[in-house]
Write a structure and sequence with these properties.
Layout (H helix, E strand, L loop, with lengths): L3 E5 L3 H12 L3 E6 L5 H10 L2 E4 L4 H5 L3 E4 L8 H8 L3 E3 L1 H6 L5 E6 L4 H14 L4 E5 L5 H7 L4 E5 L2 H5 L6 E6 L14 H9 L5 E10 L3 H10 L4 E6 L8 E4 L2 E4 L6 E4 L8 H17 L3 H10 L8 E6 L2 E5 L6 H9 L5 E5 L12 H7 E7 L4 H7 L5 E5 L2 H11 L5 E4 L12 H13 L2
Helix pairs in contact: 1-2, 1-7, 6-11, 6-12, 16-17
Amino acid sequence: MKTTLIILGAGESGVGAALLGQATGYDVFVSDFGQIKAPIKAELNAAGIDFEEGQHSEERILAADLIIKSPGIPEKAPLIKKLRAAEKEIISEIEFAGRFTNAKLIGITGTNGKTTTTLLTYHLLKEAGFNVGVGGNVGKSFARQVLEENRDWYVLELSSFQLDDTHELNLEIGVLLNITPDHLDRYDYDFQKYIASKMRIFHLVHLGGCAVYWQDDTQIGENVQNVTRDLNVYPFSLSADGTEITHIQNDRLFYVPNDFEVSAPRADISIKGLHNALNAMAAGNAALLAGVSEADLLKGLKTFKNAEHRLEPVRVLNDVEYINDSKATNLDSVKYALDAFSAPLVWIAGGVDKGNDYSIIEALVQEKVKALICLGTDNSKLIASFEPVVPKVKSTDDLIEAVRWAKEMAAPGDVVLLSPACASFDLFKNYEDRGEKFKSAVLAL
């Protein structure tokens, strides 16, 4: 009799898991409480996989042998509570896919910078000739790739939600970038639970494997010795003045894995800003530990192009540079973005506030920003926070108007920066939609 596999959620990860499950002999059923997109229904139908939408058939789901749940489904969901009470095995798509590949795995997590660091690490390995795939929280699902491809390496972006349901994945290298408060509604508003979730990445690294982490992060520093016992540790730092670990000195990055040193000028790294220097340190360490040569590392750092909506250059018009940083939905990301530019900034921000304490960036805004355009349905908090420190503040709920105002306010040599600090759902479908509409408006000027 076949083992019953239930997939909760019919997004990219769920469909990938369903296809892999069917191919490996499971009796698969996909259940989504929302509506399933037409192309996904067509794919499931073509594969002969049974599914439902708009409901969860609890009796059938509770009878399952194995559950794979979407990372978007919280533990407090009634169905998950019932499954936990019934002691059902619940795992992530990442965990499931890992059972069917012998590829070596690099896992990358952190509150900020995960996608950039994952894509850069993948780029460094790919440019060096590695047979490598990229997945997890970015791109095609890991399960779909394990089914369709035969890779020697995978670089996986892992969110805290994915880590929570991943228990036996065998990582060669684990990378932890930073930990700041985020998604606390999923962790009972207990920051320590969120920290523990992020630190779990090192429990997934096999004994004798490699742990790469930002030594300066206080939340990591307090906990890292306990969770990296029996691992080879490769910290990186902004403050280290010696040569023991990867660090920055005299505007050069010094990589120090395995008792040798590789030096790269910061000016040669394609992604700008101090936060991206940290991302480049993490990715470079991981790549060198995986076996990338010094020459290939230096070449890859120069040729990398970041994902859309992350400090993405859109165009230069009248000697004004327009930057799309729509992915910056929290204050840490905005802080990094503001810090990346020395030119005067016309800053476009706003959306659905996530409980921001804008005093954190007040001094930086006062130093860098000549004008603020608030873009959202309710801009009162932004206006109240920055009207005292920014010379010009305007408010609108119209993106095209915001971009036109930015053009009027910017002088040659300035930068117009969309870095919202807020979620996008008041005016847009998501941050990608916001970024695409911003780019279209800028290109139409």
